[in-house]
Amino acid sequence: MKECIRCGTCCKKGGPSFHLEDKILIDKGIIPSKYIYTIRKGERSYDNVKECFLPASSDILKLKGQKGLWTCVFLNEANNDCNIYENRPMECKVLKCWDTREIEKIYAKNRLTRQDLISSVEGLWELVEGHQERCSYDMLKFFIDSLNKSKKTEALKGILEIIEYDIKIRELVVQKAGLETDLTDFLFGRPITETIKIYGLKIKMEKGKYILIPMG
Ligand code: SF4
Fold first, then answer.
1. Residue 72: CA atoms inside 13 Å, Cβ hemisphere, count?
2. Same domain for 74 and 53
3. Which atom of ligand 1 is found nearest the CA of 91?
4. Cα–Cα distance between 170 and 61 in angstroms, integer?
């Protein structure tokens, strides 16, 4: 029977998404939250199985890559070893690069969400919910779609307000609450200043103000 030869190729294409079955790894601190980032509900992201960009139907929590690369944070590149092999997440256990049927069956089921992990942390969860309310991708998409319509000024104002709130809340939890900067991509998802590029736009600071420009 064919077996994984642990060549590391899959681990270099990006870390796994988490499922409820993986919660214990995070609860026990085997996988620290600072190594996780959130794709928030409604955010467009690449679906490896369907091979296209789709809006996420719920939170998708994923393992970060190393230094801005796709390579999973737990891969030891010197020997292609997984640093948490005995405790690797479910998707890593199920994935067989030569036969993807099993992973295709489970990849969208029982996705772990931020609510599963931090809804009982008083104060913090309210911040996350407040951010989701003020900066939802449904609202961002609505304003982006409105840019080409008659209410362009309101749409632009709406987008910039979302971006400013998204920036401010990250600064606030680090400066005032003393949380690690690395945690913000888990708590509030990837910064909208980055993800807005998926919608063909980018943000620039000019004379102390953010401005929105189309991607060149
Ligand atoms: S957790 Fe381990 S097995 Fe899973 S992608 Fe990362 S390095 Fe590979």
1. 26
2. yes
3. 4
4. 18
Candidates 144, 137, 134, 189; CA nearest to 164 is 134
Mean pLDDT of the chain: 93
Confidence band for 124, pLDDT divided at 50, 70 and 90 = very high
Tell me the CA–centroid distance for residue 84 and ligand 1, in Å: 7
Instruction: Give the range of the structural domain holding residue 131, as residue numbers without chain letter.
Output: 119-214
Nearest alpha carbon, ligand 1 atom 4: 92
How many percent of the chain have pLDDT more than 90? 80
Domain assignment of residue 1, yes or no: no
Within a domain: 100: yes
* 74 Cβ inside 6 Å of ligand 1: yes
pLDDT digits (tens, 9 = 90+) for 149-175: 878 899 999 999 999 999 999 999 999
Task: Give me the number of domains the chain comprises.
Answer: 2
Residues 6+ apart with CB under 8 A from 176: none
Atom number in ligand 1 closest to CA 14: 5
68-79 pLDDT tens trace: 899 999 999 999
Listed residues 84, 99, 114: the one ending a domain: 114
Which neighbouring-strand residues pair with 76?
Answer: 81
